[in-house]
Amino acid sequence: MFLASPAFARTDEDDQAWLNVTVIGNVGKLAYFAEIQPRVGEDVSRMTQLLLRPAIGYQLSPTVTLYGGYAHVVLPIENGPDRNEERLFSQLNWSLPKIAGGSMLLRTRLEHRRLSNGHDVGWRLRQMIRFMHPLGNPKKVRALAHVEAFVAFDDTDWGAHKGFDQVRSFAGIEVPLPGRSTLDLGYLNQTINDPNNRIRINHVASATFWIRP
Q1: Whole-number Å distance between alpha carbons of 118 and 61
Q2: Distance CA 154, CA 143 (A)
Q3: 8 — phi, psi (to 5°)?
Q4: Alpha-carbon distances of 196 from 8, 11, 48, 200, rounded to whole Å
Q5: What letter would DSSP give residue 42?
Q6: Strand, helix or coil at 6?
Q7: DSSP 3-state assignment of 7?
Q8: What is the DSSP letter of 77?
Q9: Within the chain, how many helices (H) and strands (E) appear?
Q10: Tens of each residue's pLDDT in the chain, 213 residues
Q11: Is 141 helix (H, G, I), strand (E, B) or coil?
Q12: Element (H, E) at 5
């Protein structure tokens, strides 16, 4: 059975580049962020996705912040009309105490999703664990790793399937910029569980600018 299984499953791989620019901050206990994220795929030949995602939140404690937001996702289709996704989401960020000399953040996000090529609503849960560790001087470059698992709660007529959806794993560095801003640079592996025993693996060169006014 194990020898036969590769004949039934197909793995597709792609090289991609993702750029994320996020402005994030607080005004008293009011929190906010706004991000723009173009993603270039198909062997880094064309833009395959564009995300625009603002949110506002409230700092419940020095370590816990609750957000509510909206995301508009453009999915360009070659030789056809673009598809669009509209997401409402709620998000909880929780900073944990120091662990092994580094800092850890948990991010839980619940998404309410609609796509322009269907009528159903899809619900999806995302859980991220992010860990940073200084490389010598704490004020300089830090090692960074995070993993995020996605689980869909229902099937939809636009392609979502109940159960495990995807996992993203990142390894890289955090580089300090002027002020409190930072740049995350590294490699991200995105493994997607598509229907019909098809697995998609994207190898992503990832750069994220965190702009903190």
Answers
A1: 40
A2: 36
A3: -95, -20
A4: 9, 11, 22, 12
A5: T
A6: helix
A7: helix
A8: -
A9: 1, 11
A10: 334 444 456 889 999 999 999 999 999 999 999 999 999 999 999 999 999 999 999 999 999 999 999 999 999 998 888 999 999 999 999 999 988 889 999 999 999 999 999 999 999 999 999 999 999 887 799 999 999 999 999 999 998 999 999 999 999 999 999 999 999 999 999 999 987 778 999 999 999 999 999
A11: coil
A12: helix 5-8
Kind plus residue range of the DSSP H or E element containing 208: strand 198-211
- Strand 46-59 relative to strand 30-41, pairing: antiparallel
Read off the pTM.
0.91
> Which residues, other chains included, contact 182 with Cβ-Cβ below 8 Å and sequence gap of 6+?
174, 175, 176, 209, 210, 212
Which residue, among 136, 129, 209, has the nearest Cα to 175 in the 3D structure?
Answer: 209
Closest CA to 21 of 162, 209, 213, 212: 209
Q: Which structure tokens are listed for 133? A: 């560790």
Q: Which of 35, 26, 72 is nearest to 184 (CA)?
A: 35
- Structure letter (DSSP) for residue 187: E
Closest CA to 70 of 82, 85, 92, 80: 85
Closest-CA residue to 39 (of 54, 19, 23, 21): 19
Q: Tokens at residue 78, please?
A: 């070659």
